[in-house]
Structure of Carbohydrate kinase:
Amino acid sequence: MLPDRSAVVIIGVDIGTSLTKAVVFDASGVSIAQASTPSEIRQVPGGRVEQDLDQVVGTVATVVREVAGAIDGPVTALALTGQGDGVWLRDEDGNAVRPAISWLDGRANALLEKWQAAGVTREVFRRTGSGMFPGCAATILSYLDECEPGVLDRAAVAGYCVDAVVQRLTGEITVDVSDASLPFLDPATRRYDEQAIAACGLSHRRGLLAEPAAPNAVFHLNACGADLLGLPAGLPVTAGPFDLPASAIGAGVRDPGDGILTAGTTLACQVLTDNAAFDAEGEPAGMFLSTPRAGEFLRAMPAMVGTASIDWACKLVGIEVEQVGGLLASSPPGANGVRALPFLSASGERAPFVDAAARAQFSGLSLEHGRGDVVRALCESIAYAARHCFEAAGLSGRLYACGGGMRSAEWTQIFADVLGHSIVIPSDPGVGARGAVLVAAESLGTPFDVEAWASNSRTVEFVPENVDLYQPGYADYQASLSAARGLWRL
């Protein structure tokens, strides 16, 4: 007898960098309850970005209690996903031994530059298919090993956001294979590559890396977790994949060659592949992520040029985010000749190239231009960055999209036209949580109809004449980027 899927009530929780969201879906994939609350991000001079584990765990409790109180009947399971990268150091009881260091952090910029010059990043990329950047675990751990060794001495595990929350809720020390992928995991074997760890000078800290959980692993709320969430002890909990692969699963990416564009804090461009091989001599950038299914991987290019750039532009020109669409409509494709490079992050860029010194620029400006031209040039440059990423990742099939940037119809159209690709956008915004729930249901042996869930979407078609117009614009972007890379300095 098939399981009664209508009785399966899984709370999906997406623990983002700045927002934690909980969603409950019905059997057809439509959200029936949701809640969200902000997380605190502490920005310290010197490009340091940190978060407090207790505060983040508190956001999970807030949203879970809210959605659990809004639904009828018992909860079947809790499915977690969230931000990846960074380093979340904990002791054996799951308590933080220092504030978590975010993936946005830039304190290891200089270290990364040394590794690039010495060939360390190239060696690790050859072994794992993943590039390194200032906010990844390898560079942060090496920095701490030199500057804060006592912190590492006190830690029992150096993990990530999702597994840090899981440890607090279940008492288990674990890590999802997707989180573990960057940068030490061999994607073919799903085991750590010891030589990659050694190349980073971290063999003596190897014990801090939790072994990746087995596929379809299920954990259970302990008494403390149950008390925190107001749910019964013993409730099944799944931990991952982290937000990039979870979004791909939730959006409907199923076939090799299909891709997903996430226009959020990160501009994440991912393409599904069933081949563990990668170009070991290519540019050492991006990620080669293992997914919940053996033999399936995501070639991910998570650029640093996401919606934070638009927030910056809005402050610069004195508008609210809701006014961006109107400004974009006031300037034609090509932004009246204004061009931009969008690298505004203090930690530079990580995909499809890595350069901690990468910085933004605008060109072609005159007194005749207005703020609409400036904002449109920035939005177009981010779309060009997405095209650059997808060319590196090998997009050949359908393209899906999600993230806050997709709420702007005008910007979504720019993406479609620059990419020359129709874009499928799920109707429900909780795509990461949706992916986590789909994985949880399969792990529990009560899988939902993934095709039915993916059908709740709309398609944005590209405009052929705009595609032609953007071809020289993309060539100009590439030429400007090539010239700028020779000039950037930390």
About this structure: The chain is about 35% helix and 20% strand. The longest strand covers residues 31-38. The mean pLDDT is 95.
